[in-house]
Amino acid sequence: MERAELVTAVPGAWKRWRARPGVALALAVLALVISSAVFAPFLASARPYTLLAVDRGAYETSLAELEPLLRGWNQRLIEAAAARQALRDDDPESVHAAWEAQAALAREVRAVELRLSTVRRHASAEREAQVPLDALELRLRGWTGKVHAGELDDLGPAADLPSAAAALRETHRPRDGSGDGMRLRLQRTFPLFSDLEFWEWLAAFVWLAALVLFVRRAPVRRWLGGGVLAVLLATLCATAFRAPSGLATREVKLGVASGAIELSSAWFPPIPFGRDETRLSEAARPPTWLDSAELDESGRYVRGPRSERAAAGLEPAILPVAVLPSEPALNSPVRHVLGTDALGRDVLARVLWGGRASLAVGALAMLGTLLLGVFLGALAGYLRGPLDAACSAFVAVLQSFPPFFLVVTAAAIGAERAAQARLSPLVWVTLVIVAVGWTGIARLVRAEALRVRELDYVLAARALGYSEPRIFLRHVLPNVLTPALVAAAFVAISAMLAESSVSFLGFGVRMPDPSWGALLQEARASSLGWLVACPGALILLTCLALSWLGDAARDALDPREGA
Amino acid sequence: MRNLLLRSLRAFATLLGLVAVAFALLRLAPGDPAALRFASAETVEAGAAAEALERFRAEHLLDRSMPVQFLHYLGPFDLGPEGHALFGGSGARPWGGLLAGDLGREYLRPDVEIGHELVRRMSVTVPLALLSALLAYAVALPLGVGQGLRRGGAFDGWTRALALLAYSAPVFWVALLLQELFGPAGLDWLPILGLRSRTATSGNFADLAAHAVLPIACMSYASIATISRQMRAATAEVASSEFVLAARARGLPERAVVWRHVVRNALVPACTMVGQVLPWLVGGSVLVETVFEIPGMGKYAFDSLQRREYDAVAACVLVTGVMTLAGLALSDLLQARLDPRVRDGAR
Q1: Quick one: A18 and A144 in the same domain?
Q2: Nearest C-alpha of chain A: how many angstroms from B93?
Q3: Of the candidates A405, A493, A524, which has its C-beta nearest B168's C-beta?
Q4: Cβ contacts (< 8 Å) between A505 and chain B: which residues?
Q5: pLDDT, tens digit, for every residue of B151-209?
Q6: Is 3.90.79.10 the CATH classification of the domain at B114-346?
Q7: What's the order of all strands across the beta sheet hosting A50-55?
Q8: Most distant CA pair in chain B, distance
Q9: What distance in Å separates residue A8's CA from the closest CA in chain B?
Q10: Which domain holds residue A215?
Q11: What is the pTM of this model?
């Protein structure tokens, strides 16, 4: 009966778990690591939160491209007319051609609309500035409407459109140095936020809600409410910050540096370097708080082994480092706190972003393993019979491989087929880890279910005439969860270690996506010490916090360790 | 007797399952081996390539149904066109497949027999794994006993924290750090790649030992954490049992209680773990051998994965699987030898 007490002792165990030494610290560390991964786009990005600027480059390109686009449009119109004529002549080959011509025309129309909207957004609000634009749009509207509706038959050639665009280009010249031309409107945009996808917003809000609810010790109902609120907020943000249609995809820092963007004000993230922002002139720079990282104006190292090698003529060509707007000064200690890699990418930014992949695999694999293992194990233990036999045989086979070896080979061999099926490598690795890892949990839970099914309350439920599914779901399943929950932390650890190992061997997350393991692979290839230290230390820190929590949970549930 | 029969039957079914998993792994690869082979071969003429591909497919039964392919893979009959006369072959090559001891050849280097290569690689990996296991046990057993006897003390707390640290550290990262630290970039104490210096003669033991230090350290530290945990739990459990209390009550000296009663009984579960630890070490050798460039089985598996020699990969998986099964059997055997309850119960 000692074991039976364990199940009912869960509330007490929870309190004991929280009170064990180091648990609060481990929880805080884990929360910090997960937060840094969830909020990585807000912490490290080359794009500003908000930008008040004139995107002169986008405006000029759009204006310049209108004329050739409309010329091409005219050509498409002629082709479409020819294709429709062939169709009318009952040429069976022409169906496809006509369809293609229509699709090409629709694309052309879309491109023109995009450029027009960009021009309109930037052009000055003065009345006379709008008149030629309105006129051109009016001329176009009839055409675009018919193209979108597929009524191509009553469209004639549009020979005069390109000249109208050329005239627009003349009247809408942006203001130059002499003060001539049109004054452009200042735009406020949110480049960083409009880059985020729905699931990134969702992760951010769900994590925020979880943090708040955990600290406030909220009951289940409030957790549900928090989840719903998070989904709502994520949807709201994802739609509100949708990327503005147009050509505003230019890299902001480069645009400002080259003068294509006239900056009024901008607010950059604390680490203004993007995940994949390469800077060859700063390749393989040591952490900038070290003396050996100091550079002079021409990009030459002042001290340390690099300067000696450069003096001996062993360094590759020296390029002057361009300090782009918003970036810390050349020798500021916070410029590249953790140094840069062989392509000049900021290591801190990559480590933050890499945590997303590693932690996502860890969390998802843990969830999948627990779900599959608990459900199958409980079902097998409760039902016995052929399902149990089949399940046990399967588990026996899978458990007679070294699990890590099986994960690596399956992940590597199946990677290409997964790519063909449009699965991201992350999802594939997660699936493999779950497929190999559920057996351990299933064995634990099955043993527990074998015990629970003989207990009196199950007998009582059966005597009351409850249906088998109800007994299983309401009475057996909740009572076999304990061993699985205790093992959860260790499942997450082995999943994270497996992912990082697979990525380290080069069979997991592919370039240029970072994960901690993939970063270590790059580090090994380039043999720069500061690249090795950080990602591995973060894996270690996360796994250590998790194993501390898991160990504390084991102790808290162990009656002999009660003292 | 019936028990034994049942067990061997179950072991046989599990072995069959192992083969099935290896076969399924092979089928996970995109396309088939024929396409892989002829995609990379230099064939002058497209027609000749297509013909060679067809011939290759027929030879390796890639155009037959899955069950036939599985039976062909399993052996011992070769079901191909030149296979056993029973199955419509010409009888030139009647035996083949796993049960005939034939693991096939590599596709891109047809002169390499996978079986021979595996044996060669295993002769590197297995001694390394054995030494690592030995080291792990040598450290973990005293550690676990010490922890278990003084549970909750300072020594227990610190060493347990260290064990958690070891458990959480990714082995390839530790290997990289050790390379940085002891390699030419750091202290320059130990060689960091391979198992033999280019200049060393084959019998140079000191050279071999210097090369093996870091890999063995990397392979063993995680097992130290697991084994010492097991030993600690067992020691604590035995130490609180009634017969130890009785021994103390009889006035036995503390040393005799610990050695003769506690440690001897607590050793059983830790010793039976060796069956799990060894295959674990062999499986983990992929990482360690890749980082240290040791020409063992793990490196062979890694290279084969990179070269898409999936037959070789499947063979590696199979061998580690069989080793794990053998390890489990060894565990049972040890358990039976060491634990009189099991030993006598089986009679």
Answers
A1: no
A2: 30
A3: A493
A4: 286-287, 290, 302, 305
A5: 888 888 899 889 999 989 999 999 999 988 888 877 888 888 877 777 766 667 888 88
A6: no
A7: A187-189, A50-55, A261-267
A8: 91
A9: 23
A10: 199-240
A11: 0.85
